[in-house]
Design goal:
The complex is a heterotrimer of chains A (99), B (632) and C (505). By secondary structure, chain B is mainly α. Chain B has 24 helices and three strands. The radius of gyration of chain B is 31 Å and the shape is globular. The chains are: A mainly alpha (99), B mainly alpha (632), C mainly alpha (505). Chain B: InterPro entries: NADHpl_OxRdtase_5_subgr, ND/Mrp_TM, NU5C-like, Proton_antipo_N.
């Protein structure tokens, strides 16, 4: 199969993720969308690894997965902490960065 | 040129006096005046010694020089601190130190009640030193040092009683107007260096022989500006009247006998430039002619005895400048009038000081009258000076003024007749206003208050007056007999001065007769107007417009104020505002813009994570698009 | 180690010494500062005596690798120009310490910090004039701002914080442009025969530049220097900074620091970019003439005595700049001498004005009156300093001002004529404060002002003595200056104009 099709899929996934991050308010959904974008990137890395016949891309993909896993742990913990204190998982309510 | 190592003492002695008195402070109060007088007198002694040495040498070796050290030496611009004593400068040296010493003696008594007498003598010594440097410098730049030095001394002395705001203003005015003249001297030196490559008298003289008339005319006009500033000539004359704020001995020494004649010295010293620049000469003559009438007219309207004398000084210097502008024929006569004027005018100023001394420092002549009886010595010495200035033979002024009138008539053609008429007219007016001063002060009925007790001044004051009056009687004949002064000065002016007697418009005796007639007319009018009629103790107000203008110094101050001072003040205020609001405003504007931009951009920092994410996305897309466009 | 480096380190040693003295022992701190600065001054005079006047190359040189990968060296040396300015700096510093004996107290920090800052500044001033490596010069140029910033902001008066920031921003802006130019020079040198920051080698680089490059790089340097030696219209920081700093700070600021600008114009603008200098000369001459007249008019209109002195300096810097770009030996020598003389006459003015202000607790000219009768010595000191500022012949400024005018006249007569009007304005801007503050009746509030004490007389005495001595005998400095001035003119490809009327002979 033409390896470029994987890139199109990855691009589609990334776009869905990006739109999701911008459009949705629920922190959990935003979080999922970020995961979607990370995986789109992973897919791209692997595809290029395949096209170029090298292994670096695949190795990097593993790194990304590990980082993503860590991120999930920390991120979910933060979301839960925020939910506990505010009774809301909407990220627009937490605009504390302004200050 | 013969060199000498003793010239410097002429300057060093009074300079030492000035520095000592200024540094010693109050400690010198007891002996300061004595030291000052001694220093001036010993400088006079050195001057006499130099004269005797000079007389013992043959004519061509009479000029001597002394190089003290190299002052400025930058590539081709080389100026030595050098002194030059020739037949011209020795005249000035003796006048300055001689009259100067007499005035020192006078001041011991005149200033005896002033707690700052020591400082006064320090200034006087400083003046003597600077004036000697002016006449002894061997280049225009060393002359310049003395030139501004006397300006400084004059400033300090005019403002000696500067606790009175008007006096402080007068001293400032004198300094600033002198600076305008100094600017002219700066220009002259710059042009001389740029065109001739040197600024020493000898060098300029040599280089001027092959130089173009344009360059020399430019130098000459600038020298005239300088001379006009220092000698209170039109149009820079306005400071002299106000300069009378200084103590009277100062007026006698600086503003009558010596400093104000520096302009004449400068023109005569630069004879080689003016001889080759007829246009500049013509302007010199015009300035002299205007000033001689200008000063004389002002003199007729003044009730302040010192200001009347100051106007007279201005007018007499006008005579000298006019004569110096007539070229080789006139130089020696200009100097002759300068010297005789030094005697009689200094004497009259000291006389005026003596009168003021006896009249509780009142200067209003309308409040004098009948002082002849109370101040006989002052009356006689002042009277001798009076006879000299109006030009009654055989007093000094007769010879010197007569020669100027004659030279003016001999200038040739219409110019000669015009100039001669002007000098004659000046003589009429001079006789009128000086007679007026005499009558108002000495011979008319008394008009002073009962609490004033006029009395003769002490010995230390009348003694210098007596000496000066002897000078005003004899000096004219002394210089005139056998063309003594003319022959003495001739070597300074090169070969020019020899053959200028062939053209006579009138015979000398006719000129003398005309001059005497002029004097008689002037005296006659004055006697009719003042001696034979009642004099008001307060100046009458219902007078003609001409009198009013003359009383206002022919509107010289109004002119300067409305043309220079007010626009200058407006310009200053505008620039100050402009600097605050435009130049610095631009800077502050940049600051405000930065702050405003910050405040605006801060709004984009909403704190919403999703808008940040959107911005990141847009940025990334824009970046990729950019790269894509570039690599396409 | 060269004696020049030792000279530069000496003040730092003094600063360390002061750092270990307990802050409470203020007198000890002051004595240490005074001792150090006097020692530095004596060492510099010794160096002057050992200076070979006939040699136009750098002397007392020392060079050591600093950042070899960029070709940056610690390289110092002096020629006549830098020697004169180093002398100016180290002679003024002890006078500032002595004159401002009490101005370190009452600041935001202790007196100890004040003197440490002064001594650090002295090192910087020596370094900036001695550096023969462009990068090293830049480092000193910028580092110098730090102590001055704290001196104004910490010990000044009035709106000192705002003035300090304004000063810093102006200077940093200029410095940034200069840094860009320095990097540009570095790039050009690395393309043409090896990367270097050495001033002598860089002065050959103009052969490899296009005229546009040269013009741009020139402007980078020139704007930085025109801000330092304030040239209209980049001058507005100076009155604020000078009026807000302590008198001592202002003396160093106007007297020495601003000279870095005119020094840089000669050392860098002219020698690195001769062709661009020629291109911009007409513009710069015009700006200089404007500065002369503009500064003078603003000084006449000034109500605050410190601002007045600052504005007179703008006028004087106009003269210096004009002399530099007139490209004649007289103009150049005059300009360099003017830098020295202006340092001293302004120092005298500012020191005495500082004492007047400290006594009267006001810097408004109209608040004074009749001081000549109350405090004669102080009034006379101010008067002599003022006379030097208006270039009275016989005082030091006259020689330099006249040389500048004569030198300019031979090449740019119109500019010289316009500038000469400045001497009439100078009479006004000096005599107006003299009349208002020193003459006239003694006004209320001034009756009991004390006259100068012994310390103050010792501080101002040497300054006035130097002003008078150099007025009559400028040869000691001119002998040092002349060779370097002649060399700069020659290397620019200029010869002095020949007197127009003697050309045929």
């Amino acid at each position: 199969m033409n390896p470029y099709n994987y890139l199109y899929v990855a691009g589609l996934l990334f776009t869905i993720g990006a739109i999701g991050v911008i459009v949705r308010r629920n922190a959990i959904v935003v979080f999922m969308c970020i995961e979607l974008m990370l995986n789109a990137a992973n897919l791209t890395l692997v595809t290029f690894s395949r096209i170029n016949g090298t292994l670096e891309g695949q190795v990097t993909a593993f790194f990304t997965m590990v980082v993503a896993a860590c991120e999930v742990v920390v991120g979910l913990a933060i979301i839960i902490a925020i939910y506990r204190s505010r009774r809301s998982a909407s990220i627009d309510d937490a605009s504390l960065l302004k200050r | 040129m013969v060199t000498s190592s003793s010239l410097v003492y002429l300057i060093a002695l009074p300079l030492f006096g000035a520095i000592t008195l200024l540094l010693a402070g109050r400690r010198a109060d007891k002996w300061g005046h004595l030291l000052g007088t001694a220093m001036s007198a010993s400088s006079f002694g050195v001057g006499l010694y130099q004269l005797s040495q000079m007389l013992s040498r043959p004519t061509e070796e009479r000029a001597i020089g002394q190089k003290l050290f190299t002052w400025i030496d930058v590539a081709s611009f080389q100026v030595d601190a050098g002194l030059l004593l020739d037949q011209l400068s020795i005249c000035f040296v003796l006048l300055i130190t001689g009259v100067g010493t007499l005035i020192h003696i006078y001041s011991i008594s005149y200033m005896s009640h002033d707690e700052n007498r020591r400082r006064f003598f320090a200034y006087l010594n400083l003046f003597i030193a600077a004036m000697l440097l002016l006449v002894l410098g061997d280049s225009y730049l060393t002359l310049y040092v003395g030139w501004e030095g006397v300006g400084l001394a004059s400033y300090l002395l005019i403002g000696f009683w500067n606790q009175k705001p008007a006096y402080a203003t007068a001293s400032k005015k004198a300094f600033v107007m002198n600076r305008i003249g100094d600017m002219g001297l700066s220009f002259a030196i710059m042009i001389a260096f740029a065109t001739l490559g040197t600024v020493s008298f000898a060098g300029v003289k040599e280089a001027s022989e092959g130089a173009s008339e344009t360059a020399l005319t430019a130098i000459g006009i600038m020298l005239l500006v300088a001379a006009a500033g220092k000698s209170a000539q039109f149009p820079l004359q306005a400071w002299l009247g106000d300069a009378m704020a200084g103590p009277t001995p100062v007026s006698a020494l600086i503003h009558a006998a010596t400093m104000v004649t520096a302009g004449v010295y400068l023109i005569v010293r630069s004879n080689f430039i003016f001889d080759a620049a007829p246009t500049a000469q013509l302007i010199v003559v015009i300035v002299g002619a205007i000033t001689l009438l200008f000063g004389a007219v002002i003199g007729t309207a003044k009730d302040d005895i010192k200001k009347a004398l100051a106007a007279s000084t201005m007018s007499q210097i006008g005579y000298m400048v006019l004569c110096a502008g007539l070229g080789p024929a006139g130089y020696a006569f200009a100097i002759m009038h300068l010297l005789t004027h030094g005697f009689f005018k200094a004497g009259m100023f000291l006389g005026a000081g003596s009168v003021m001394h006896g009249m509780n420092d009142s200067v209003d002549m309308r409040r004098y009258g009948g002082l002849r009886k109370f101040m006989p010595i002052t009356f006689i010495t002042f009277g001798l000076g009076y006879l000299a200035i109006i030009g009654v033979p055989p007093f000094a002024g007769f010879y010197s003024k007569d020669l100027i009138i004659e030279t003016a008539f001999n200038a040739g053609g219409f110019k000669g007749i015009l100039l001669g008429s002007i000098t004659l007219l000046g003589a009429v007016i001079t006789a009128f206003y000086m007679t007026r001063v005499m009558i108002l002060t000495f011979t008319s009925p008394k008009r002073w208050e009962e609490d004033q007790h006029p009395h003769e001044s002490p010995f230390l004051m009348w003694f210098p007056m007596v000496i000066l009056s002897i000078g005003s009687v004899t000096s004219g004949l002394l210089f005139y007999r056998g063309d003594a002064l003319k022959n003495w000065l001739n070597p300074v002016f090169g070969d020019h001065g020899k053959d200028h007697y062939e053209e006579h418009l009138f015979e000398p005796i006719v000129v003398s007769a005309m001059a005497l007639t002029a004097v008689a007319i002037g005296v006659g009018i004055a006697i009719m107007k003042y001696q034979l009629s009642e004099i008001d103790a307060v100046a009458p107000q219902n007078v003609s417009i001409f009198t009013r203008i003359a009383r206002k110094d022919l509107l010289q101050d109004s002119f300067n104020e409305s043309v220079f001072m007010r626009p200058g003040q407006v310009l200053t205020r505008l620039l100050v505002k402009g600097d605050e609001n435009v130049v610095d405003g631009a800077v502050r504007g940049i600051g405000r813009t930065a702050l405003g931009a910050g405040a605006t951009l801060r709004r984009t920092q909403s704190g919403f994570a999703r808008s940040y994410a959107a911005l990141i996305l847009i940025g990334a897309v824009a970046l990729i698009a950019g790269i894509w466009v570039v690599t396409l | 180690m060269s004696s020049l480096t030792l000279l530069g380190i000496l003040p730092l040693v003094g600063a360390l010494l002061i750092a270990v003295i307990p802050a409470e022992q203020v007198l000890r701190v002051k004595q240490a500062a005074l001792g150090t600065t006097i020692l530095v001054a004596i060492s510099a005079i010794m160096m002057w005596l050992n200076f070979d006047e006939s040699n136009t190359a750098f002397q007392f040189v020392q060079s050591a690798e600093w950042i070899p990968s960029f070709g940056i060296n610690y390289a110092v040396g002096v020629d006549g120009l830098s020697l004169v300015l180093i002398l100016l700096a180290v002679l003024l510093t002890p006078i500032v310490v002595l004159a401002g004996w009490n101005e370190s107290e009452g600041g935001r920090w202790s007196a100890k910090v004040f003197y440490i800052l002064i001594l650090v500044l002295e090192t910087m001033m020596i370094g900036v004039f001695a550096a023969t490596d462009v990068f090293l010069f830049y480092v000193f140029f910028e580092a110098m701002l730090i102590p001055v910033y704290f001196l104004i902001g910490g010990y000044g008066s009035g709106e000192r914080a705002a003035a300090a920031v304004k000063f810093l921003l102006f200077s940093l802006f200029g410095g940034l442009l200069m840094l860009a130019s320095i990097i540009g020079l570095y790039v050009i040198s690395s393309k043409n025969g090896g990367a270097t920051f050495d001033i002598t080698e860089l002065s050959q680089m103009h052969n490899y530049m296009s005229s546009t490059t040269q013009n741009l790089l020139f402007l980078g340097f020139f704007i930085a220097f025109a801000i330092k030696a304030p040239l209209w219209p980049l001058h507005t920081w100076l009155p604020d900074a000078a009026a807000s700093g302590t008198p001592g700070t202002s003396v160093l600021l106007l007297g020495v620091l601003d000279k870095v600008g005119t020094f840089g114009m000669i050392r860098f603008c002219l020698s690195l970019f001769p062709d661009a200098s020629k291109t911009f000369t007409p513009v710069i001459i015009v700006l200089a003439v404007i500065s002369i007249l503009y500064g003078a008019f603003l000084a006449i209109g000034a109500r605050d005595i410190k601002r007045l002195i600052a504005y007179t300096s703008i006028s004087h810097f106009g003269f210096i700049t004009m002399g530099i770009f007139a490209m004649t030996t007289q103009g150049h020598s005059g300009a360099i001498l003017y830098m020295f003389n202006h340092g001293f006459s302004t120092a005298a003015l500012f020191i005495v004005a500082g004492w007047m202000i400290a006594r009267r607790k006001s810097s408004t000219i109209a608040d004074f009156g009749g001081l000549q009768r109350v405090t004669p010595v102080m009034a006379w000191s101010f008067f002599i300093a003022g006379m030097s500022s208006l270039a009275l012949p016989g005082l030091s400024s006259f020689v330099s001002e006249f040389l500048v005018l004569v030198g300019t006249f031979t090449r740019y007569p119109v500019a010289a004529v316009l500038a000469t009007f400045g001497i009439v304005l100078a009479a006004l801007y000096i005599l107006i404060p003299v009349q208002k503050a020193l003459h006239g009746p003694t006004t209320p509030g001034n009756e009991n002002l004390p006259d100068l004490n012994l310390r103050e007389k010792f501080a101002v005495g040497p300054v006035l003595a130097i002003i008078i001595a150099l007025g009559f005998y400028p040869a000691p400095l001119l002998n040092v200056i002349n060779p370097v001035a002649a060399q700069v003119i020659e290397s620019q490809g200029f010869t002095d104009p020949v007197p127009s009327e003697s050309a045929g002979k």
